[in-house]
Amino acid sequence: MNLPVTVTFMLADWVVKGLANGTLERVGGVIREVGTKQVVTWLREITGQPAQVNKSDNLLNLIFSGANLVTTGVSTAFTGNGLANVNQRLGGVEQASLSNIAVSGANLVATVASAAATKKELTNFNGRLGVIEEQLGGIEQSLKLTQGILQVTTASSILNLGVSMMGFVVIAQRLKELEQRLQQAQELLNKINRKIDVGFYANFRAAIELAINAFTMTKPENRRSSALQAINRFLEAEHIYTELTDIEIEQQSPISDEYLLTLSLAYLAEVRCYLELEEHDTALRRFQEGSKILRSRIQKYVDIMLTSNPAAYLHPQLKGEIDLQRLTQIYQWIDPNLNENAVFEMQRENLFKIIQDSNQWIESLPAAIVSRVEVQGGWFGPNHNDLKKEAYKRLPQAVEVIESMIETNRRFEAYQTEVQAISQLGIGFHEWLKLTPSTETKPDGAELMYIIPSTPLELQISS
Predict the structure, then answer these.
(1) Are strands 70-73 and 109-112 parallel, antiparallel or unpaired?
(2) Largest CA distance in the chain
(3) What's the predicted TM-score (pTM) here?
């Protein structure tokens, strides 16, 4: 069967260009046209783990499609002076593998064969390295321009890029991580005479095990019956964690995000059951209903984390960690029509307020960011300066939490497009799961593959 999609390990050059010039954008695990909102590419991790990038990785390990540039260094013997010269030219990236670079528009092939280099050969080689340096400069500039897509490998989220990679085993693993985080938070909550009940997590885990068992059954009637039992348990979890989430948000609690994430997993587990049963319409409807519930609560949580004076995130003390662009990206999730100038105007007066009198802001800080019981002080407890010092120390981390919640929300909402696509393209969910490049060999270090429909698809993300 010829499927109406192309699956590849290489990010198409026209996608890179579109992201660079702003005609394309990444939303969760999809790349879509900015104007029409049509989906042009799905991103999928190659493993069940969220894509991660080692911060020591060099841009040389990134691969772009359409490549005509190949550089290969093989067992070359250099004289002392030649090696020093080459090392200097490589500028600290000499240990990175040049064989992983592929960039469209280039037509350079550099090959160094196993041989002792003479002075003339080294001169020639250095000249060719100079050309490579120019190419690498272009690559680096391209990477800066396409930061929107490259951020996908570093964006923090408890959810994977695609629903296809969020199987029950992965959901169970994420649930365990959340439960452990709540247990660690218990010490802090004890200081303010609050206790949390993690017993509900045991029921959630039991529902996941029921679902796993259901879809290993051979008889269709048994599989469906057990799956429906699991769905009922997941529905119960949704009601429980919706109520718990609302309570924690109302109290501006430091564990609000943990319950929000647990709630997202409950919806995801339910929908996954419907997808396994190939009940696409029901799966899409539940995704849409879950998105509305999650979006409204995540936005309340983000509002809390922005504090009573969001200009605090632009304090000079945080220069180099948080800038206006980063704050604007948060506000654009709330209102896509805002730009940096609009956000600055929103904070113009707040900037003076936070500098002139920060005491009011300190007193209004939510426990989600800092609580007085967490801050050491003198005999009579922490004063304003103690609280302020601790607050500014935590704001960079608070921004990361906000960004993580926004990314999680975007991924959850983008899952809808996968469900719409398998119906619109006439592909079963289990066929969708098996999609993989048929002719390509997986490059070393590749963490993503790209699913490209033959024509852009009109798939709406609703929340």
Answers:
(1) parallel
(2) 77
(3) 0.76
